[in-house]
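Cast an eye over this sequence plus tokens and explain the fold to me:
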Amino acid sequence: MHRALVRGLALTLLALVTAAPARAQPPGAPLPPPAAPAPRDSTRHRPPRLHPWLEFGGGWISGPARLRQYYEASQGFAAGLEARPAPRWALRGALDYQMLVANGWADLHVVDAAANRATTVRTRTQTTGWIAGARAEAGARLGGDFWLTAGGGGGHIHSGLSGVETDALSGYRVLTSGDVANGWGWLWTAAVRYDFTPDPRVPLGIDVRTSSLQRRHDSARTSSVRLCFRIPESGPRGAPRRRYR
């Protein structure tokens, strides 16, 4: 009797001990997921991101004087990419297009052999030329949001002025103004830009630029003032774009 009672108490205690973990973890409960490994830090090896940008404004021929007399100010455009390896340094590449409104004249010479006299009729002409180029630039932040950039590349000028004589009909001769030759050359640029952000989604800049297209015939210098729009970085879905600095 005594041994049977002791054996019963021992079996009851063993059952309670083995049942406690079962109550702590109900049958069928999912196990906690394993902890995800920490992401690998690759910021030290990641190349700087490329940021697209666009420019629009006006430009004009600033020299030499014999070229400047033919042209009016007109629209200018540029598009490119920028990388900032450090907060105070930037690298830019761009395609640039500057329109040239060319004003010239044409003289029509009429020769009357029977009357032994010649008559000249002068007419004004207006045509469109252009300068297109590709450039690479390096920039440095001067202070605040002012940037100084300079670089070089290559370009082509289409003057819009023929500068040639052609015989039209017998007894007629047409002489057009201008001796601006079309052709390729080396392009050198320098600019000062001020960046400002009226809205986080609209980062802007004002770019004041001078360029020189060095050719065998001459050096065509241009100046321009443009508004620059820097496409901001994309954040998480639903979050506003943030500016880059």
About this structure: The radius of gyration is 38 Å. The longest strand covers residues 117-143. DSSP finds two helices and eleven strands in the chain. Residues 84 and 178 are 44 Å apart (CA to CA).
